[in-house]
Q: What sequence folds into this?
């Protein structure tokens, strides 16, 4: 059976990751490694200068999972490098040339807010899926978020997202994604009957209204918060924002290469000469 790794950025204790793991159980062997605390908006860190710890815990449903001291990206790296195998067989810790654990798919989520547009640069959920690409394993990230005019329970929202996760994961296992490609999936918080299907989308334009909040601590020293209104987005046709606005699940293919290849071609053609 396929081997599936499940992680998130809301912590191993989040109800949403339990629903996600359960939805994938009949597709293969599911291993769960997730952060021991919340890492929302953590970006893509890599822990190199202190130890990483991974401890087994048992969920209320009896599933044995791993809580990791590191970031979501660390969880993925530990798994792919074989940490769960070593944890189960401590006598092999000093064995030379031990093979790495093999995963066929990494699934991250379900995040409890949208990851649309340039949110993907900050998201720990997406970073976990990106780390999987760095290490050569295809991946899918799942998020869900509120939309105007609809109110459903957290449980229903996560269950809707978990259902789409099962469908897309099954498809990715049957027909693997292209190399160096992950899917960033966003599910609107609507009743299941009010979700019209899914659309394949590009990353739209997120609008942030950040403001600087400056205060003094009790000793008179300044400190700062980055605050502001809830960010919005431009619901352009074909974009992830457009899909969500229209009541569809957004599925965006992402990769690691951030190069603007069309600009690179122009630069090489001399359209914008650099100063000498």
A:
């Amino acid at each position: 059976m396929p081997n599936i790794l499940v992680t998130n950025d809301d912590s191993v204790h989040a109800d949403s990751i339990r629903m996600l793991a359960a939805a994938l159980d009949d597709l293969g062997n599911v291993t769960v490694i997730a952060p021991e605390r919340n890492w929302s908006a953590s970006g893509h860190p890599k822990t190199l200068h202190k130890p990483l710890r991974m401890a087994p815990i048992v969920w209320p449903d009896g599933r044995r999972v791993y809580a990791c001291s590191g970031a979501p990206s660390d969880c993925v790296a530990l798994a792919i490098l074989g940490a769960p195998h070593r944890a189960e067989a401590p006598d092999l810790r000093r064995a030379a040339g031990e093979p790495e654990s093999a995963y066929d798919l990494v699934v991250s989520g379900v995040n409890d807010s949208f990851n649309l547009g340039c949110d993907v640069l900050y998201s720990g959920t997406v970073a976990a899926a990106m780390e999987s690409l760095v290490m050569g394993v295809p991946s899918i990230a799942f998020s869900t978020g509120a939309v105007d005019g609809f109110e459903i329970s957290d449980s229903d929202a996560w269950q809707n997202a978990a259902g789409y996760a099962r469908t897309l994961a099954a498809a990715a296992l049957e027909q693997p994604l292209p190399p160096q490609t992950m899917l960033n999936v966003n599910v609107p918080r609507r009743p299941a009957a009010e979700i019209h299907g899914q659309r394949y989308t590009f990353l739209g334009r997120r609008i942030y209204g950040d403001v600087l909040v400056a205060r003094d601590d009790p000793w008179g020293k300044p400190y700062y918060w980055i605050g502001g209104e809830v960010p919005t987005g431009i619901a352009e046709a074909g974009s992830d924002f457009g899909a969500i606005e229209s009541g569809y699940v957004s599925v965006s293919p992402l990769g690691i290469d951030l190069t603007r290849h069309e600009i690179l071609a122009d630069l090489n053609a001399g359209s914008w000469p650099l100063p000498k």
User: Anything to note?
Assistant: The longest strand covers residues 222-233. The radius of gyration is 20 Å. The helical segments are 15-24, 72-80, 83-88, 124-134, 154-174, 240-245, 261-268.
